[in-house]
Amino acid sequence: MARRYDSRTTIFSPEGRLYQVEYAMEAISNAGAAIGMLAKDGVVLVAEKKITSKLLDTHAVGVRREKMYKLDDHVSCAVAGLTADANILINMCRLSAQRYFFAYQEPMPVEQLVRSVCDTKQGYTQFGGQRPFGVSILFAGWDEHYGFQLYQSDPSGNYGGWKAIAIGAGHQAANNLLKTDFKEDITLAEALPLIIKVLSKSMDTSLATDKVELSTLTRDEATGKINYKIYESAELQPFLDAANAEKAAASS
Q1: Do residues 164 and 182 touch, judged by C-beta distance below 8 A?
Q2: DSSP symbols for the chain
Q3: Strand order in the sheet with 147-153
Q4: Which of the four pLDDT bands, split at 50, 70 and 90, describes residue 186?
Q5: Which of 104, 137, 237, 249 is most buried when burial is the number of CB atoms within 10 A of its CB?
Q6: Average pLDDT, stretch 45-53?
Q7: Per-residue pLDDT averaged across 8-29, rounded?
Q8: What is the pLDDT of residue 149?
Q9: Amino acid 121: pLDDT
Q10: Which of the residue ranges 40-49, 52-61, 83-92, 94-103 has the most confident prediction, judged by mean pLDDT?
């Protein structure tokens, strides 16, 4: 039945489904995992890198940072899915944020930025001759209206705010673990080992610095400056070692 209705994004099936949009979401389920967690004093994002080879130049753009991107001084994101599609949406977000700042001389509210890109994603499911963006994005940000925020968007154009969320490969197991282990008043220091532990449960292989990207978004209370930090290999290694040891102990 599906084959009669999945040739175009604009055709509904008799059950009211848009198969091409569902297929785009399925593509994300096969991509490297990305997990976000909202803490009292910041937001943590972690992601699994799929592109690993000894021949890669790890300092090249697009290799060193495959999954994590800074959109503005107060917003960052992690992606799961087609990186080429993600690049288009990331540039769109950066342009929207700078246009808003140019017009109003203040940072763009996080949800408004997310909604603007999701409106574009929804348009690609409604008009013929286009395909949905095959990427899901986790947005981490801070603004003066709602403080620290974490949003997730999918190819349909839907988005929602989350306390903790996993997307990509193994997301169901990761989300089940988050439901049991996440606490409302968690701090950033507690969130870092927890989010690495959740990622290790969703990956088939052991954690290594060339397979994982970790970033945090925090705010300096004294100056009000938003700090976006991507953890380098030396900073990341202790968290990975602890998670690998715990995983090995649990399996033995």
Answers
A1: yes
A2: -GGGT-S-TTPPPTTS--HHHHHHHHHHHTSPPEEEEEETTEEEEEEE-----TTS-TTSTTTTTSSEEEEETTEEEEEEE-HHHHHHHHHHHHHHHHHHHHHHSSPPPHHHHHHHHHHHHHHTTTSTT-----EEEEEEEEETTTEEEEEEE-TTS-EEE-SEEEESTTHHHHHHHHHHH--TT--HHHHHHHHHHHHHHH-SSPP-TTTEEEEEEEE-TTT--EEEEE--HHHHHHHHHHHHHHHHHHH-
A3: 68-72, 75-81, 135-143, 147-153, 159-161
A4: very high
A5: 137
A6: 82
A7: 80
A8: 95
A9: 92
A10: 94-103
Amino acid at 144: E
Mean pLDDT, to the nearest integer, of 24-43? 89
**DSSP single-letter state for residue 132:** -
Percent of the chain with pLDDT over 70: 92
Q: What is the mean pLDDT of the chain?
A: 87
Residue 173 main-chain phi, psi, to 5 deg: -65, -40
Q: Is 22 exposed, middle or buried (0-12, 13-18, 19+ CB in 10 A)?
A: middle
The single residue listed with the structure tokens 């380098």 is 232
User: What distance in Å separates the CA atoms of residue 44 and residue 193, rounded to the nearest whole number?
Assistant: 10
pLDDT at 221 over 60: yes
